[in-house]
Amino acid sequence: MSAVLAVVVASPGYGGEGxxxxxxxxxxxxxxxxxxxxxxxxxxxxxxGFFKEEGLNVELIGFNSxxxxxxxxxxxxxxxxxxxxxxxxxxxxxxxxxxxxxETYNATKGQRTFALLVSPKSAGQALAEVLxxxxxxxxxxxxxxxxxxxxxSKGVPLAQxxxxxxxxxxxxxxxxxxxxxxxxxxxxxxxxxxxSKGAHAIMDDAGTGLSSTVLAFxxxxxxxxxxxxxAFLRAVARAAVYINGNAxxxxxxxxxxxxxxxxxxxxxxxxxxPKPALPAAGRVNDVVQWLHEKGAVKRELTYRQMVADGYLx
Length: 313
Fold this sequence. Notes:
This protein is α/β, with parallel strands linked by helices. The chain has 2 domains: 4-106 and 212-306, D-Maltodextrin-Binding Protein, domain 2, CATH 3.40.190; 114-204, Periplasmic binding protein-like II (D-Maltodextrin-Binding Protein, domain 2). It has helices spanning 40-47, 50-53, 66-74, 85-93, 127-132, 142-153, 169-178, 190-196, 219-224, 226-245, 247-257, 281-294, 303-306; strands spanning 4-6, 28-33, 57-62, 80-84, 98-105, 114-118, 135-137, 163-165, 183-187, 200-204, 213-218. Helix 6 (142-153) links the parallel strand 7 (135-137) and strand 8 (163-165). Helix 4 (85-93) crosses helix 12 (281-294). The longest helix has 20 residues, at 226-245. It is globular. It starts with a strand and ends in a 7-residue tail after the last helix.
């Protein structure tokens, strides 16, 4: 079941001296997220009251897959979301009025967020043989993008791999461990969990700058609520600073909201989060070109059509 976190602003009873009517609470900002480590600042901002202190009424709506989250955005159930750069661009490129307002995480040199792993049943096989045995992917997502980049770094065209579509990440891990596919790209902490069960990581994204995760809002919200958008990003920035200085305090939040496996709850390292910033133009344009080549984005897109400046402090 999708987790839902609600942050409700407690408004004062009256609007000022002599006022007779209570103030109305601010409108609810329904923001979609996923139970992944990169989204930790959102969960911390909610639980520690940072959204509330910015005068916001934020409801974090949890989804089990990016596809569910994208459907919620396009149907108007949420006004913004946390996700990867790839799916945000796919939506924009297919005429969904969404704009990226900040990048919140990318893999650091010392810690990976995704890894390409080989099944325990394919241990010792040559890379070409592994690729023929099936690589579980999720098309037009960061996992798909990383698969292509990982193989390119080894001089191997993606066409040499047998790609197996599987958007559900836990099932993808089960397929890997059970030998139904020979390889798969998995996010942390599932990559570490899979290694503990015999899978072998052969490539990862540590220090590559390939794994950008972003916050995005629909254009209607941005035009109608620019100050709320700025306040939202201030709360997330504050949460990033808090995480970096209070690892022990935020670990229970990470364990619960990011669905940390039991055996990793005490030992898995908490990432260090940067201050939210705009994604690099070169990285965005590289993803756009990749999506064009795949046919996932038909129309021409400029950086400014995808990224909205002016909301970060």
